[in-house]
Design brief:
The structure is a single chain. The chain is globular. Helices cover 32% and strands 24% of the residues. The protein has a single domain (2-244), classed as 4-Layer Sandwich (Purple Acid Phosphatase, chain A, domain 2), CATH 3.60.21.10. The two termini are 33 Å apart. By secondary structure, the protein is of the alpha/beta class. The longest helix has 13 residues, at 13-25. A hairpin with a 5-residue loop joins strand 7 and strand 8. Helix 7 runs antiparallel to helix 8 (236-244).
Amino acid sequence: MKYGILTDIHGNLEALQVVLNFLEEKGAEVIVVPGDVVGYGANPGECLELLVKRNVLLVRGNHEEALLSGNISHLRAGARAAITWTRQQLNQDWMDFLSKWPGWLVEKDFFVCHGSPDNLLSGYVYSISAARKAFACLNYYVCFHGHTHYPCGYRQKKDGNFVEMIPADFNGKMNLRLDPDWRYLINAGSVGQPRDGLPLACAGIYDDVAMTFTLERLNYPVDQAREKILACGLPASLGNRLLRGV
């Protein structure tokens, strides 16, 4: 089966539409979203509507958690403003829907969370040492996650503690053949706010028959997404960063 892996959409409808069309063309049968559908962008409700219409597995991210709990003191100013604004856009039915999302899920041989297996909502895997801690809490062959907005993978030998990084290429893409002798942490980057210097939406596909993971980068009307953010009165920095992929 082919799974679409989409994380950190962040209310970016323009990016999400392009990515969903791409996944449909590639034959993805199930879409897996490791959190943060909302936050930052101008179309949280529309993004939720698009996902509901498809066969989607949803996991709660730290932005959904902040929206539900109202605890935003730990967030940066732009994120706080976006969460406050997003709460005004979503009715109680949407809030009830978000509240049902699990903090993690298991589908066949893979584990899904937003942050990392050792810190489900807020864990950042930026280094070998962080990956080693995450692997210590992972009991599955593959973990798909997000949160950093930076596409990257790590793998660990099943019979030892050796961990190595699997970087994206210079175009921000990944093309992995998964080896059964290793376990994998795979960060699918971000659909709606990539931070690797490339203003291109991330679209992941996991094929559990061929045992491959590919990450494609897609052009989308980024100027339109930016203009919507500005028109909503959200901080200009949230729109401007889309142009730079930071």
